[in-house]
Structure formats: structure tokens, C-alpha cells
DNA sequence: TATGAATGAGGATTCATTCAT
DNA sequence: TATGAATGAATCCTCATTCAT
């Protein structure tokens, strides 16, 4: 609309015009849809989710959804990937250079856990990726994007492990492989929090399990004590 | 209709070829349906699975399914149940009483891995449970069924760990929790083999990773050497 | 809005580059839309044609279409009209007054065939009309439009035939009827070129069939030789 | 409901049981659907036709349609091809061996016209074939079947022409080509009866035009009179 | 008991048209 | 005048479940 603000009356109205710009409006609407979709998708899951309800909750017509997202699957993915971008940066920040390798592993995993606590939904994208057969072919860019993110995180972790091994803090090991193991473990535990069957079987709070698991692995990585091991 | 003459009474019917008894036949048919259902459910998951195909594969009419199972969910439960029972039994057999606790853990996990290799589809059951966000809420009986199976397996593992701890083979630990960790790890690794993104990032063959992960945990469980730890 | 300053009044605005007048611009834009619409309508037919694509190809917003044409049907009519006018004119030009009637018929049909070769899509218009059973009832204005064009062409042909009959070049006949027959034949042959079933059965190149058909009809129109026919 | 009277009492009721057999019932229902579909398709055309209405008119549920026909296109084709099988046989019967070739051509075309009068709808299948882009890929068997029928008819006609040429009744000509021309002409004329634009332009009853067209072609096929032509 | 025909709610998606800016 | 976001009716098709035979 009138791309150039009316500023009718002529007086300057501070930083931002009252009336939202074209693009702004579009962004807001998109967000409204995403919010509604998140609610519905997270409550019902992908397949049972009803786009009618999404539209209704977003306060838009059904057809409007399709002006923002190609189809149901894309909307789902969009819901999942929202907010995803900041993740890797934060994870990197969690690593403080001065700390011992073991402590850095702890920090990383603690960050991971906390991030999950704050953004549970976000993590579902990992699940989504593993469910292509159910939700349909995901757009390649999405797969690529998540894979890349994943790889960066693994790399971060692997570097820490590698440095630990080089410095003698850890026993020698294949750091990429162990990073994978840690990663898998962390994701598995988190995922199990949302899986009803697994959750039902837990007797210790997840956070505690999470820490213990990391500790267990760290202990497994401790360098063999010269005497006792050499025996 | 009236296809099979009543042979109630059970007396021998002489020359006539061995016609299966009423009950027998019913059992066989039920099994045929279960087999067909397993194939389809394991391939497609709960919601996308199509009962038309199940009936066709079983060689019965669709209506017949409902003479054996109340509805789709119950059929699913029956599939899980039938297979779960066999699974738990085999897993139990994998544990040989005479072996060391560590070795028993190795055996168990090796069995798990091999069983997965041989029956990949079967394991999708576990994911089904973890995929509620994607496939929608599963009927309670289904969840209960799998939870029960899962619990039995965890119990098996926890017992081994517990005995190891009691016997001094392992450091003291919460055996149920560690069993959960191992279980999560194993499932996570297997699952990652089928997820395109995760698989892309692996550089070591899964079997190797699997063994290394178990070894890592076992090392983490080793009792603290008196000297170094006691310090 | 207000995008283009009013230059009503029409006076020359000096140095400023030759900006097209209001009306001019409007005419150009209308033409752009018509061109885009022709492409799409001729390729897809009336109902399957998508106005989104028309707008896109024309390089205007979808809403703009409605500033030039009331609705889809009227746009279709306009397309038919624009092209029909050009067609009838060219067909008229193909008739050279000096030639014999038979030769004029040949010319006409040759023109028709060549025009089809060059603008295959254009001819789909005729089929659109004959395809109401498939595409559904067309809006009356559309039918009227095409009927008018068709009538003009038939009239041209009928006049040639009539003059031929009057001049003794052809046997007496109902020239309007024969014009219809020729027209039907020509359209049928052309149409059959695009129909997979019919085309499969042809063994002679269409152009040849076309000429032979005309020749056949012309021979049928030859005046009875006084002797043999008079018997 | 209670459709079939109880035939309690058990006595033999002559040749046919009152209660329709399984297959019978299915055939009847299929027919009901076809009837309803014909009404709707012929009134609205393929694309605008609404399967909801078809189901309603047939007195069945929407889903039932899909038990008899894969999809809309197949139902349409089925409507068109119903009754088609007897056609070629009848056409063959129309040819009486004793008649002159010209007379046989007249007979054939007259039969064709009458058959069309009686079964207008049937002929639409020819149109349908030419509209694949609109109604979607037709099942190959249908295309093949119609092509085959078409070929047989052309062959019949071509044989008559060929014999006529051999016997001196017709001037030498490519009989397959002329058969195609006649066929195209006949179909074009018939089709034009259903096309509103073409129909509006007709001033002579179609039957008359049909006969005249045939006569015109026959005259065009007459052998050249030795004297007058040789000149 | 087995059948399979029938059901009908349910859901994703399209697209001509409107209208506020 | 042009835009393009929004609309929402329209429609094909799926499939778990029922039920008369």
C-alpha cells in the first residue's frame, strides 16, 4: 500500500509509522498462521492435524494458508524450523575456551538440554526428518539445512573431544564417532521424553538422566590409569 | 455359508481328509491376518496403513478382519503383542547365566543389533511410539502394550547391571537408569540408520559404532580403581 | 495510486521523455493481457485455463485483469474476437478476384491449412465450441462471438460457390450448405491431426489428404457434361 | 430393503430365483450409476459435472462410485462406451453384398446417421478421445478399443470403395484415404449438431446435409466419362 | 462364520473474484 | 489506476467401519 508512508498531516511520527507496511503485514500474518499451526500440529501430530482448524485459529480463510505455504508438509516444516537459526551460534557460545574438555562436554550437553527445555518444539524437526515416509517428501532445502546444522554441531563436539584426546584429558578415540554417540544419546533421551511409552518408564527426572548419561560417557573416555590398566 | 459342517462332538470322521477343527481354522486365519498386518503396519506405520491391503494380503474379506479384531488399533496392538512376546523371549535367551555381567551386556546389545539387522521393520514399532507427534495420538492399549514389552526388556537389562554392581563388576549405579540409557542409545543408533540426515553424517559402519558405544558405557561403569579414585 | 501524475490536459511536458499517454498505455496493457490470455486459453481451453498464469505472463497483478475484463468469459471472448478479426481479414485477402471459382476454393482451403500449420493453437477455438460436452456450457457471448466469425468465413466461401454456380463453373447447388460441408471437412481433418486415435489411422500426410478432399468435392461440384449426363 | 421376497417354503420356483444373485445386483447398481452419470455428464459436460450429484441421483453414497469406477474420467468413459460394442456388427450388417458400391456407401452413411440419431451419446466418445488434455489421460484399453473399432469401420468403408474402383464404378483413388475423408465428414457433421455455434449456422436439416455431402463425394468419385474428360 | 458392498464423514487443495490500500 | 492479499465455495477422493446376506 502506498509503499511510501503517507505521513499525512506532515508531522514526523517518530521512528515507525503506525500503519504496518506491506511486507510487515505479510510477515505478521505469516506468523499468525505459524502460531496456529504450531498449536494444532503439536497437539494432534502431522497427519491428524486439520488445516481447517489451523485457518480458523489463525483467523484466516483456508485458501490463505496456501498463499504462504505450498502445502501441509511445508507448513509443518516451517513450524518446526522457525527459530532454528540461532541454535548453532548459541551452542558455540556455550563453549568457553578456558575450560577443561570434560567440562566443555558438560556445558554443551547442558546447553542442549536447556535449549530443548525452552524450545521443545524446535527439536521435533529432527524427528520430522526421520519420518519422511509419513509426512511426504520434505523439500530438499529443509533437509539440507538441518543436515548442515547437525553437522556443525557434531563438528563442535568432535573438536572438543579431539582436543581432549590430544591433550591427554581423554583416552584416544574416534572423536567423530563419539560425538555421534553423544548426540544420538542426547536426542534419544529428549525424544523419549515426548514418547509416552518411554516416559512412563522413567523413574528419574530427565535432567538427571541426561547428566548421568554424560557423566557415564565421560568416565568411559577417561584415560586409562597407567598402573591399573596396564596390568 | 454352512461351508464347514459342524463337527462338534469331536469324534473321528473316518476316511474324510483331515479337515482342521473349527478352532484350529480360526487360529490359522487369525495368524494369517496378523502376518499381513505386520507387514503393512511395519512398512507404513499406524495411520497410513490401509486395512484394505491387510485384508488382501491375508486373503480374506475386509469385513472378516472385524470378526477377529475390534478395530484398527486393536489389530495393531495384537501385532505388537505377538511380535513383542517373541522378542522378549529371544532376548532372554541371549543372556547366558554363566557369563560375566559385562559380557552379558555385550550379548544383549549384540542380540539387539542382530535382531534389528534381521527384522528391521519390526523396530519401527518403537518409532511408532516416538512418533506420536507425527502420526497422532495412539490408542491407549497400544501404548500400554509397548510399554509393557519395553519394561520387560529394560528389567532384563537392569537385572544384569544390578547383579554386576552387587558383585563388584560395575561401579555402583542406578541400574534402571543406566538400562534406560543403554536402551535409548541402542534405539537411537538404529533409528539413525534409517534417517537420511543422520545416516549421511556417519563415517563408521553402524555395527562398529554400536559396539563402541556399548564399550564406552561399559568402561564408564567400571568400578573405580581403589588407588586413583580413592585419592 | 497516484503513481502516474495526471497529464490530463494533454499539453506537452517539455524535456521529459515521451511518456505514453493514459489511453495509449491502457491499450498496450490490454494487448499484453490479451496476448498472455491467448497463449493460455489456446493451450488449455476455457475451463482449465488459469488466470493466475495469464496475469503472470502478462506481467500484471491478477486484480488488474479485472480492470480490463469483467470476468474470465469476457476475457475469453476478447481473445476470440481479436484473433477472429485478423483471421477473417486474412482469409478475405486470400481470395483473389480474378481467379476461377474452383481455384478460389483451392486458395481458400490452402490458406486455411497453412494458417493452421502456422497457428495450430488458434484453431483450438473451434474445438472449444464443439467441446461443450467436455468443458461445460460456454457463456453465451462467447458462443455468439465465434458464431459471428464462423458465419463471416462461411459467407465468404458460400459467395465463391454461388458465383461459380451462377457462372456455370459449378453445378447448381445450395452454396451455403456446401460451404458448411467444406468447412466441416476442413475442421474435421485438422482436428483429427491432433486426436491421437484418428492420427494413428492416417497413412497419408495430412496436407495431401486435405488437398485430395478439396479436389474430391470440387469434382463433385463440376457441372454435368451435357452429353453423358443428359443421357 | 426387503428387496427380495423371502422364498420361504422352499419349493422350486421355476427357472429363476426371485432374489437377485450377487453379480446381478452388482450389475444393476453399476447401471444405476451409469444412468445417473450419463444424465449429469451430458447436461454439464465432463469437467463441471459433480460426482456428488451423480451419487445422489443414483441413490448411492459418494464412496460407492469409487467401488465401480476408479475416478471421474473412467466413469465418463464408461458412460460413453456403454452400448458401443454392438456398433461395428450392425454397421457390417448394413452392407448388403448385392448392391452397387455407391449404394453401399449411401447405406453405410445412412446407417451411421441413424445410429447416431438413436444413440447420440455414444458418439461422444470420439470427442472424448480428442480431449485427453482436458479430461485427463484416458485408460489405454479404452483408447485402444475405440481405435480398433474405428479402424474396423474404416476398413469396411475402404473395402467398398476399393471394390467400386476395381469394378469401374468409381474413378481410381486411394480408398483408405477417401474412407477417412468420408468418416471425418460424417463425424464432423454430427459433431456440429451438438456444437451450438455450428448448429446455429445450419439452414438445412442435418439429415439432408448428411445425404447431400455423401452425394457430393460420390459424384466426385464417379469415373471420368471417356469423351468429355478426354477432350 | 465370512463376505464384500455400501457408507459418509473428512480433508487437502484450487481458483475466480473481491476489495482495501 | 494498479495491486496482490484474502476469500471461501467447490470438489475429488480415501478408508475405517457397518451390515445384510
Give a written overview of the molecule.
Four copies of one chain form a homotetramer. Chain A has 231 residues and is mainly α. The first copy, chain A, has two domains: 59 residues, Orthogonal Bundle (Arc Repressor Mutant, subunit A), CATH 1.10.10; 153 residues, Tetracycline Repressor, domain 2, CATH 1.10.357.10. Chain A is 71% helix and 0% strand. Chain A contains 13 helices and no strands. The longest helix of chain A has 27 residues. The first copy, chain A, is elongated, with a radius of gyration of 23 Å. The N terminus of chain A is likely disordered. Chains in contact: A-B, C-D.
Q: What's the topology here?
A:
The structure is a homotetramer of 231-residue chains.
Chain A lengths: L21 H23 L6 H8 L3 H7 L3 H10 L4 H9 L6 H18 L1 H10 L2 H4 L4 H27 L8 H20 L1 H6 L4 H16 L4 H5 L1
Helix pairs in contact in A: 1-2, 1-4, 2-3, 4-7, 5-6, 5-9, 6-7, 6-9, 6-12, 9-10, 10-12
Chain A binds a DNA duplex (21 and 21 nucleotides) through helix 1 and helix 3.
Amino acid at each position: 500500500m502506498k509503499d511510501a508512508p503517507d505521513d499525512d498531516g506532515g508531522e514526523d511520527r517518530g521512528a515507525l509509522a503506525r500503519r504496518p507496511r506491506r511486507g510487515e503485514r505479510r510477515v505478521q500474518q505469516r506468523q499468525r498462521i505459524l502460531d496456529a499451526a504450531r498449536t494444532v500440529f503439536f497437539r494432534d501430530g502431522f497427519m491428524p492435524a486439520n488445516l481447517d482448524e489451523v485457518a480458523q485459529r489463525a483467523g484466516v480463510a483456508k485458501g490463505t494458508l496456501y498463499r504462504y505455504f505450498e502445502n501441509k508438509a511445508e507448513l509443518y516444516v516451517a513450524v518446526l524450523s522457525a527459530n532454528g537459526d540461532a541454535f548453532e551460534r548459541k551452542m558455540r557460545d556455550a563453549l568457553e575456551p578456558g575450560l577443561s574438555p570434560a567440562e566443555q562436554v558438560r556445558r554443551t550437553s547442558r546447553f542442549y538440554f536447556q535449549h530443548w527445555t525452552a524450545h521443545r518444539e524446535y527439536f521435533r524437526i529432527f524427528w520430522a526428518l526421520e519420518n519422511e515416509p509419513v509426512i511426504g517428501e520434505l523439500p530438499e532445502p529443509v533437509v539440507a539445512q538441518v543436515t548442515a546444522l547437525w553437522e556443525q554441531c557434531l563438528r563442535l563436539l568432535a573438536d572438543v573431544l579431539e582436543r581432549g584426546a590430544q591433550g591427554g584429558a581423554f583416552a584416544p578415540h574416534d572423536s567423530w564417532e563419539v560425538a555421534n554417540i553423544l548426540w544420538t544419546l542426547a536426542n534419544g533421551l529428549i525424544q523419549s521424553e515426548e514418547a509416552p511409552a518411554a516416559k512412563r518408564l522413567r523413574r528419574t527426572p530427565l535432567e538427571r538422566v541426561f547428566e548421568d548419561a554424560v557423566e557415564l560417557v565421560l568416565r568411559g573416555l577417561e584415560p586409562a590409569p597407567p598402573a591399573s590398566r596396564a596390568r
